[in-house]
Amino acid sequence: MTASTRDLRFAIHDVLDYEGHYGALFGEGTASRELIDAITDEAARFCEGELAPVNQSGDEIGCTYSDGAVTTPPGFKEAYAKYVEGGWAGLSGDSNYGGQGLPDSISLIMENLMCGANAAWTMYPGLSRGVVEALEHHGSDEQKGQFLPKLLSGEWTGTMCLTEPHAGSDVGLARTRAEVRADGTYAISGTKIFISAGEHDMSENIIHLVLARTPDAPAGTKGISMFVVPKFNLDGSRNAVNCGGIEEKMGIHGSATCVLHFEEARGYLVGQENQGMRNMFTMMNAARLVVGLQANCQAEAALQRALEYAHDRLQMRSLSGPVAPEKEADPIIVHPDVRRLLLTQRAIVDGGRVLVYFAGQIGDTAAAGEGQAKQDAQHLMDFLTPIVKGLLTELGFESVNHALQVFGGHGYIRENGMEQLVRDTRITLVYEGTTAIQGLDLLGRKILQTQGPGLNLFVGLTKELAAELESEASLAGYGRTLSAMADECGELAMNLAGKAMEDLDEVGAGAVDFLFYSGYLTLAYCWGRIALTAARGLDGSGPESGGSAEDADFLAGKLAAARFFFTRLLPRAAAHKAAIEAGAPTLMEATAESFGPW
Amino acid sequence: MLEYQAPERDIEFLLFDLFKVQESWADIPDFAEISEELTRAVVSEAAKLASEVMAPLNQAGDQSGCTWEDGAVTTPEGFKGGFEALAGGGWLGLAGNPLYEGQGMPKMLACLLEEMFWAANTSLFLYGSLTTGASICIDSHGSEEQKATYLPKLYSGQWTGAMDLTEPHSGTDLGIMRTKAVPQADGTYRITGTKIFITSGEHDLAENIVHLVLAKLPDAPAGSKGISLFIVPKFLPTEDGGIGERNSVASGSIEHKMGIRGSATNVMNYDEAVGFIIGEPNQGLANMFTMMNYERLSVGLQGLGSGELAYQQAARYARDRLQGRSVSGPQNPDAAADSILVHPDVRRMLLTVRALTEAGRAFALFAGQQLDRAKYADDAEAAKLSELLTPIAKAFLTDRGFETSVMAQQVFGGHGFIQEWGAEQIVRDARIGQIYEGTNGIQALDLVGRKVLRDGGATLKALLAGFDLNTVDADYREALAAAFARVENATDHLIREANADPELPGAVSTDYLDLVGYTLYGWFWAQMATIAPDDEFGIAKRECAAFYFARLLPKTLGLEASVLSSSNCVMGLAEEAF
Asked: What ipTM was estimated for this complex?
């Protein structure tokens, strides 16, 4: 069991009780603890054996483009073949189409371990999952039969084609055209950019999910339709979609980021015309959760290496006397500022992990639950999705930078892999909607437009947890903090709603700071649960027995990290509150010209 | 394409309106001759060099990087011409000793110029910065003969400098270094060992490279008290000032790095290389620190330059990029969408970058002013202040430099991740500033341990007490007073608790440094807003000041809370529990 799967097990078994959750939702025995552990071990073996070894070389060599074809870095193709062979692609896929039918949240475990081992490689199967989701929800039975089996076996991979040169965050500006043909298919024409996995040599076919407009479509996002455009048609002929080039990027060099040209390519409408944007959101939400997870796992990989380095690297003596007198210096983990760097990462990564798997649980209920529980879960998911994406990518990037810093100058050179982690993680703040877009989604769509049912439900959960914490003497302070912050978050939302009625710019002006504020609240909720689990484990009343010294150390470490989070990181929320209250005038009064460049 | 224009309007505002150098320099005999006209001419010449010569080489230098073959390093195409222009213009000796062909100009001016050169091309300017640093060290501690031999060559850039400290097992902890120096009968030394991460240790830009090497004498005491400093030239100088025999110091390889790829980072091997001691034996570390203090402020300026360069790219992109509509109705109805400048969050990012960059520039100038007063006006208070400000300048300016580069990159969305636009290069280049010349963690420890606790907070409190709130607009006084109180509160907490809890200063040092940094920026914003003229420039200043006070200064709330803790939440767990 590696260090990271130890933490993973703690999160999903001890803090979140996945077995009980599955039992309640799907019936006893759906996915036992043993099954979850077996999948975790198998996934870890695959990722460590096949993906990690080609991570650094994948970065150095990158993808190459020649005459419309993309060659992935050495070893990528072979690793993918093993992924297909292992049946990983269909883990949570519909069993009617060859999937294994396990809950969606089980896939998070695999995504987790893959992202930590090789983020660039993970892009290829990751994009497939989005296409699968879109087809499962919005495809016709015929389309499902045509595409899902090969996608779920992994023989084919998928893409999401949204962005155009002039249309990024503003998808409504997309110009790609779709004209219906006599046979009911559509001729798709246009150019898409930044298409991850748009062309490569790992699978026999690539299924593009393309947003385009029919000739009489209304302007803006209401006139967008969704199409499936396979690289090879179902009769095996080549479709008119071609890769015009790949981008030179800051990171994820092993992932091919393509320009795709569609020249009257054959496309199949998914769902109804002009419903494309809405349908796309089904998969965007799943993808956003995974991007948050990706950043957190990259941060975790970085933390593991930083920890190892901090234990091995000898520099200076501890202030309180030599800790390793037989050596010429002490390991740098004796130094408080190195510990601050490590604990900051710990606070982000452990809290973020619980947040992702908590959201995974809620997502299961939203998908498979019934009645009020299902509806509540959907509201909660609406609230949590932009937070997972926005907060965890921002903090994940901060965290990998702290890990690099632990290495000092050795972090800046390529050899140690730390700078690659920083470069690879940077994209997560951008794709699947930038942080600002997440903030607007949270504050605008999920709270102000709908009176915030998700926020209210989350505040309720937080209050319940706060009461539990307050009943444990050693954790009572966390409970009070959590409770006060939950109230304050509700007040901030109310005040923003009032101000936004006067000035719509208040929404955009407060969005990112509100995302951070509510994000720190959700992390505090997660840390509250971790602390409660650890405290009960140590005193013997909880699921972790604390029987072995190793377990006791582990749990004590969690309690210490919780203390660090509440004492040293959570106070950051105060500045976000002040920024929200400062509102739009501080941003909007300046003239456009005053921004220069002069 | 990374385009750069020096912020000349802001520079003039700071020099002549805020710091009123035409008056303060008149009081310092060495500067009395420097007219306003000369100052403007120097700034505008340097600005031209930065934008027209250095900046165009920046992106291509990153892409091609340096190459190593058989001990020789080839710098990117065009760097030779660029370095000749930098050196030939006399810019490396700008603040150098006039007795040895330096120009004796104020550090304040040098600060502004360095920021420009860093912004225009960080990799290229590193060759110059190390040279200036070496000249300062030799000027402060070298013999007359050493000064005469090396200073004119370094000021002119015919020869360049390098600082050789780090060894594979010895980075922050220099005391455990192994490089040996054996005395010879003729008074020279033979140096043997290996150093790593040596910036400009080998390259093709100059005829000679002057290595300043730390090494241990055979009978040296253990630890940092047993380190001596040596000049180890690549070619031994001849009596007539030319270059003679090749010394046995050679580059073993160069590193592949995240950024600053045009700067050669060398492994240096010394095989009984001839060295000349600087100063007294075993005083090496202290002597090296003279140079380090200079380098630390300069690295801070690098961070500042990154922020300015990043801002210029992002502002241009934001103006030109059309996405979405303003929520208050189309601003550009003729086009498919509005410029992204209509979106509040884009403005939040741009204003954050500008607020931190412009306050940083004022702060750096303030630090430079203290160095000038200490050196040329015999001002002991200023000397103490510059000691206090150096670690803040290094760490706060580079941390904010990285943060603002990342934020500016974010304005580009997906285009920021693509090499073509250059935004990602600025981020990669800026990242090193937080590490070299002492990691920012080391700076924070230096601030708390050596600069604050050692004098019981006296210098820091005197600094804050000297900021007269009655001289700034009333709007800012309350918030400033509260921020000052937070700093004092945090300082008192450290002083009170440090004896009983000796790990506390180290445990909270970084947050403490940030607390002081944000507070000082608040003071400079208030000052700038108070005197800003009523034109477009001045209005933009005041708007940015309002932004800073409303949205960034409140960070001091969380930082104070974080400092007011005990070391227990950092130190109170076993190593294994990590």
From this structure: 0.95
